[in-house]
Write a structure and sequence with these properties.
Aspartate Aminotransferase, domain 1; single chain; alpha/beta; 448 residues; 16 helices; 2 domains; 4-stranded mixed sheet; 41% helix; 7-stranded mixed sheet
Length: 448
């Protein structure tokens, strides 16, 4: 069986990772600090990341298709970012009080993503979506929010509903359910679930508009669905109905911000939300998140006045590491490089070549396979139907996907199961050819 061979090869190549795991599991749940790092039969532990390649603790080299979950669009350890961080470390690491770097980065983001008229920096994408939802509730005075089945907005309670735990209720009117243990029932009841890429969602928003503070959406559903863009007419209809009823439209651009282009998904699709959330790329590889949008909204509920009325009118948003100068310096360097160099056409062409190459290999080997994605983002589904929403993604063969991923990893291509892939400016045409060659070899072995 191909899977057994792939796993045996993985085990044979990664003895040191296994040793570390046996020790780490006594101190870290699952031996790691995040679920995305976990892998069966045991996690891979890395030592070095440069450009488009990573090296594990056993010395194995991999073409990296995880790309720091999309954050390293310039590649790992880009010289401009490393230089900026070294210079800033000599000046200040964490003074708590504001630095001018915050202002510079906010101005640059606002210029590039012009719907982000005012911005508040936080420390992660999860924080950004949490705070954007809170700001929308404060601004509108309404409590409920709506999100889409299979969309992922981080690890807070308001997000972990109807993402992994999808498929309940009718397709046109999904039912809310918690994605994990520990989510309060009261929050589940305050989340209206909507069908992704389905015009029935527009009617649901219209029906519940009087109680909705916000609708939050991934313009490209990356993690729980797998690199599936929203239909542009669907986004336009969503913008229209939310605007008509005073419901805040929030774009979760943690993945798409500076990935689809300098203007993010809003510019790419030509749809302007009220609020947006960014992270990953904007930090240049360092911890960051940000939310922002309409000036009137941000001024009303985020700008502090230090008055007693703030407790009733304002949404609290702060943090020791928010706007820290290391992340600010790294982010400024990253965005400056993205402005200076024609990155997007290049990485988009690589993404197209990779999707076409894997699709052609699957056709040749007789596998029903869908390679979804947009630009430099992609995902592989073992399915014989187009993947446009969460329920179609759920019907894909996930056992086959795990087998495929283990085959890639055992042969030097890092793409973990059920995870989208990303390409960077550091990847070359030769890297993509190697990935396609390895994918073809894996599919050949899987076909028997």
């Amino acid at each position: 069986m191909a899977l057994e061979r792939f796993v045996n090869t993985y085990v044979a190549r990664t003895a040191r990772s296994r040793e570390i795991y046996e020790d780490a599991r006594n101190y870290l749940p699952g031996g790691v600090s995040g679920n995305a790092k976990f892998l069966k039969p045991y996690p891979l532990y890395l030592k070095r990341a440069r450009g488009a390649h990573v090296t594990d603790v056993d010395g194995n080299d991999y073409v990296d298709l995880l790309d720091a979950v999309g954050a390293a669009i310039l590649g790992h350890g880009h010289e401009a970012i490393r230089r900026a961080v070294k210079e800033q470390i000599d000046e200040a690491i964490l003074p708590l009080m504001a630095t001018e770097l915050e202002v510079h980065l906010a101005k640059k983001v606002a210029r590039l993503m012009d719907y982000m008229e005012m911005i508040r920096f936080v420390n992660s994408g999860s924080e950004a979506t949490l705070m954007a939802l809170r700001a929308a509730r404060a601004f509108t005075g309404r409590e409920r929010i709506a999100k889409f089945e299979g969309n992922y907005h981080g690890q807070h309670d308001w997000s972990l509903i109807g993402g992994a735990a999808a498929g309940l209720g009718p397709l046109s009117a999904p039912r809310s359910a918690p994605d994990c243990a520990g989510i309060p029932r009261s929050i589940v009841d305050n989340v209206l679930m909507l069908p992704y890429n389905d015009m029935a969602a527009i009617d649901l928003v219209r029906q519940h508009a009087g109680e909705l503070a916000a609708v939050i959406i991934e313009p490209v559903a990356a993690f729980f669905i797998g690199g599936v863009p929203a239909d542009i007419e669907f986004l336009r209809a969503l913008r229209k109905v939310t605007a008509e009823h005073g419901v805040m439209l929030i774009f979760d651009e943690v993945v798409t911000g500076f990935r689809l282009g300098l203007g993010g998904a809003a510019a790419y699709f030509g749809v302007r939300p009220d609020l947006g959330c960014i992270g990953k790329i904007v930090g240049g590889g360092f911890p960051i998140g940000a939310f922002g949008g309409r000036r009137d909204l941000m001024e009303k509920v985020i700008t502090p006045t230090k008055q007693p009325s703030d407790l009733k009118e304002k949404s609290f948003a702060s943090g020791t590491f928010s706007g820290n100068p290391i992340s600010m310096a790294a982010g400024l360097a990253a965005l400056t490089e993205l402005e200076r160099n024609p990155v997007y056409e290049y990485v988009g062409a690589l993404g197209h070549a990779l999707r076409e190459g894997i699709s052609e290999s699957a056709r040749r080997r007789g596998f029903p396979l869908q390679v979804t994605g947009i630009g430099s983002l992609f995902h592989v589904h073992f399915a014989d139907e187009p993947i446009t929403n969460k329920r179609a993604a759920m019907r894909a063969n996930h056992a086959r996907q795990y087998e495929f991923s283990m085959g890639l990893i055992s042969k030097g291509v890092l793409l973990t199961p059920n995870h989208p892939g990303f390409l960077s400016a550091a990847h070359t045409a030769e890297d993509v050819k190697e990935v396609v060659r390895v994918a073809d070899e894996v599919l050949r072995e899987m076909a028997g």
